[in-house]
Amino acid sequence: MKKDSRSPAVELKGVVKRFGTLVAVERMDLEIEEGSFVTLLGPSGCGKTTILRMIAGLETPTEGEIYIEGKLVNDIPIHKRNLGMIFQNYALFPHKSIFDNVGFGLKYKGVPKEEIKKKVEQALEMVRLPGVEKRMPSQLSGGQQQRIALARAIVMEPVVLLMDEPLSALDENLREEMRREIDNLQHALGITTIFVTHDQREALSMSDKIVVMKDGVMQQQGNPEEVYTYPVNHFVADFLGHSNFFNGTVIESKDDQVKVKLVDGNEVLIQHPGVWDAGNRIELVIRAQKFEITPDEEEKAGEDINCFRGKIAERSYMGGEVSYFVETGSKTVIHVIDTSKSRPLRRGQSVRLQVPPNQCGLLPMGD
Ligand SMILES: Nc1ncnc2c1ncn2[C@@H]1O[C@H](COP(=O)(O)OP(=O)(O)O)[C@@H](O)[C@H]1O
Ligand SMILES: [Mg+2]
């Protein structure tokens, strides 16, 4: 493949995929920079696997073009695209040794034996499982098998690594370990990676760019901080992080400071870029972790800004953090996650919640 250094590693232009009348992927434009780690994030059925399969060449787009390293690949078969693929269920050959599993693609390509041996050895070292060549897949744990799948992919030196929910079959601790493993390996090799998951923590912790999907439609793309801090709509705000939503109306807006009156009468000051006309209906988003929660003391009562008062209706202690559901006078329930080291508060206790103006998000009403 002729390489054009100005092209993205992978590019989708107006890509649509329909299965009969079902639109699995709606007109999608996406550029994936060389060496970057991009995650397609969204709930089950939103079209993530279909996008990956189209890039791989396992599905043909109904409309639009897919480019790999600047070259149109719509009509190029899967084995000529030089992509590495890893799926949830490892898909190792059960009756072949680890050596044969990892070396399979190289042998198929006609690489000389000695070279295969060297490359398999290197790949196994990279996934930190040196010396397991003679073992069978069944003799390895789930996490180790997944690392073998990773070794089998990288040994081919693919231009892009495609991973479809590779961690979802692993238990929690192992998942965390593999997440770091993949992250480190991707950085060490600098290999362009497209990772699919429905798990926001995986997406936030590993990605250079997150592409949030819903019902086949891209909702937002950006780096993790952007997407988390400035969600463009209710869906994204809800899907990434624990969000509280409040309906309200803009009272005034000046120099990125927006004053909003909530439905329950509470007034909130928000620091948020953009033009927000007085009278416009908005949705206020506050992450559960952004509140400061303190016992409500009578003498402190007053008109402090961005303050909510209520009683703790539910509480769960989770080690490093405490999760509270606080019921306000207007029966609104606010989810608060307290990550400070302060002593847990009691169920039924009256509390005061405060949020800084620059920790609130604003969304236009109607989406
Ligand atoms: N081969 C297929 N035939 C018909 N419908 C399909 C096929 N593959 C996927 N779909 C449908 O396309 C939509 C997107 O599926 P998929 O890409 O697997 O979503 P995700 O990976 O995000 O869970 C779903 O509604 C799914 O049922
Ligand atoms: Mg899928």
Q: Could you provide a short overview of the structure?
A:
This protein is an alpha+beta fold.
Protein architecture, described:
- This protein is an alpha+beta fold.
- The chain has two domains: 10-234, P-loop containing nucleotide triphosphate hydrolases (Rossmann fold, 3-Layer(aba) Sandwich), CATH 3.40.50.300; 242-364, Nucleic acid-binding proteins (OB fold (Dihydrolipoamide Acetyltransferase, E2P), Beta Barrel).
- It contains eight helices and 20 strands.
- The chain has helices spanning 48-56, 98-108, 113-126, 142-154, 172-189, 200-206, 224-229, 234-239; strands at 10-19, 22-32, 37-41, 63-68, 71-72, 83-87, 160-164, 192-197, 209-214, 217-222, 243-254, 257-262, 267-271, 281-287, 292-295, 307-317, 322-328, 333-338, 350-354, 360-364.
- A six-stranded mixed beta sheet has the order 6-7-8-3-9-10, sandwiched between helices. A five-stranded antiparallel beta sheet has the order 13-12-11-14-20. Strands 15-19-16-17-18 form a five-stranded antiparallel beta sheet, with no helix packed on it.
- Strand 17 and strand 18 (333-338) form a beta hairpin.
- Helix 2 (98-108) packs across helix 3, helix 2 runs parallel beside helix 4 (142-154) and helix 3 crosses helix 4 (142-154).
- It is elongated and about 80 Å long.
- The two termini are 43 Å apart.
- Bound molecules: adenosine-5'-diphosphate (ADP) and magnesium ion.
- The site of magnesium ion has 2 residues, from helix 1.
